[in-house]
């Protein structure tokens, strides 16, 4: 069985390292999936484009939201005949339908779990021997995506909801309902007036996805909705207590004192 030659294209070094580790662990535990060689990595779409043109990989694990050329724009800049098989790996589930319109093998949500990755590799292995070039419909769909229809900001979804992965389920939380978010190891807890939601994600990832004009980082483990803040009370050593609607008390640490002006 010939190895699948693949590239990892993602602007986050930790995401690339995590995916490489997950692939290694999966292939060691299930050698029947066949060999796979990671022949290179790129941190943005332009680097990825150059690697694809130079190395002609069989498969690319491709992030969508990247600086400069994003994943869709990178594919649009590549001659259709040179498209590899693509597995999109991203934190934003609202791209899923778009991904499958443009010749995607699969669509994985970060952080990548073993079982969806396993299924994606099996599908890629089956598709590779009978691979055909993307047709005109694939290319037309892609060109639409990189045009006016791609106007979403990083922090919003089409219906203004935050989507998180909880095991094999997706949680869709109205952004306006979020009061605060705290980190708990590899998980986050999203607190709303109607209850709490636990999901596997990083606080940094959520900070990047939420509208910055509506949320503030107040601690290394806490994000708060600005609209939920009722009062600030000085504490000691430059720290503050923050009282929220409903009586919850949070602490604003010294390292985030620059955020104070956002609440006044």
**CATH domain class name of the largest domain:** Alpha Beta
Biggest sheet details:
5 strands, parallel
Strand proportion, as a percent range, falls in 25-35%
CATH topology of the largest domain: Rossmann fold
Cα shape: elongated
Low-confidence regions? 145-159
Helix content: 25-40%
Determine the structural class based on helices, strands and strand pairing: alpha/beta
Say which CATH homologous superfamily of the largest domain is assigned.
Answer: Response regulator
What layout of secondary structure does this protein have?
Blueprint: E1 4-9, H1 13-29, E2 36-42, H2 45-55, E3 59-62, H3 71-77, E4 85-90, H4 96-101, E5 104-109, H5 114-127, H6 136-145, E6 161-166, E7 169-174, E8 178-184, E9 187-192, E10 195-200, H7 203-209, E11 215-219, E12 222-225, E13 229-234, E14 240-244, E15 249-252
Parallel strand pairs: 1-2, 1-3, 3-4, 4-5
Antiparallel strand pairs: 6-7, 8-9, 8-12, 9-10, 11-12, 13-14, 14-15
Give a brief description.
With 264 residues, the protein is of the alpha/beta class. The protein is built from seven helices and 15 strands.
Structure in words:
Helix 2 packs across helix 3 (71-77) and helix 3 packs across helix 6 (136-145). The protein has two domains: 4-145, 3-Layer(aba) Sandwich (Rossmann fold), CATH 3.40.50.2300; 161-263, OB fold (Dihydrolipoamide Acetyltransferase, E2P). Helix 4 links the parallel strand 4 and strand 5. The strands form four sheets. A five-stranded parallel beta sheet has the order 2-1-3-4-5, sandwiched between helices. The chain has a five-stranded antiparallel beta sheet with strand order 10-9-8-12-11, with no helix packed on it. The N and C termini lie far apart (64 Å). The protein is elongated. Helix content is 27%, strand content 32%. The chain has seven helices and 15 strands.
């Amino acid at each position: 069985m010939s190895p699948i030659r693949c590239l990892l294209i993602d602007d986050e070094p930790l995401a690339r390292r995590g995916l490489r580790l997950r692939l290694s662990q999966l292939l060691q535990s299930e050698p029947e999936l066949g060999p796979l060689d990671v022949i290179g990595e790129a941190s943005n779409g332009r680097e990825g484009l150059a690697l694809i043109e130079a190395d002609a990989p069989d498969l690319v694990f491709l992030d969508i939201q990247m600086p400069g050329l994003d994943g869709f724009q990178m594919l649009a800049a590549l001659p259709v005949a040179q498209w590899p098989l693509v597995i999109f790996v991203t934190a934003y589930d609202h791209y899923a339908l778009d991904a499958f319109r443009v010749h995607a093998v699969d669509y994985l949500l970060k952080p990548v779990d073993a079982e969806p990755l396993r299924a994606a590799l099996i599908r890629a292995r089956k598709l590779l021997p009978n691979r055909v070039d993307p047709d005109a419909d694939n290319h037309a769909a892609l060109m639409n995506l990189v045009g006016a229809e791609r106007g979403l900001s990083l922090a919003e979804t089409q219906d203004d909801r935050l989507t998180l992965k909880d095991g094999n389920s997706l949680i869709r939380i109205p952004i306006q309902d979020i009061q605060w978010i705290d980190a708990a190891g590899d998980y986050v807890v999203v607190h709303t007036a109607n209850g709490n939601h636990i999901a596997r994600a990083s606080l940094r990832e959520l900070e990047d996805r939420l509208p910055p004009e509506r949320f503030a980082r107040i601690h290394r483990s806490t994000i708060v909705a600005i609209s939920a803040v009722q009062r600030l009370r000085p504490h000691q050593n430059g720290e503050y207590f923050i009282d929220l609607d409903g009586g919850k008390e949070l602490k604003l640490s010294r390292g985030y004192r620059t955020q104070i002006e956002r609440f006044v």
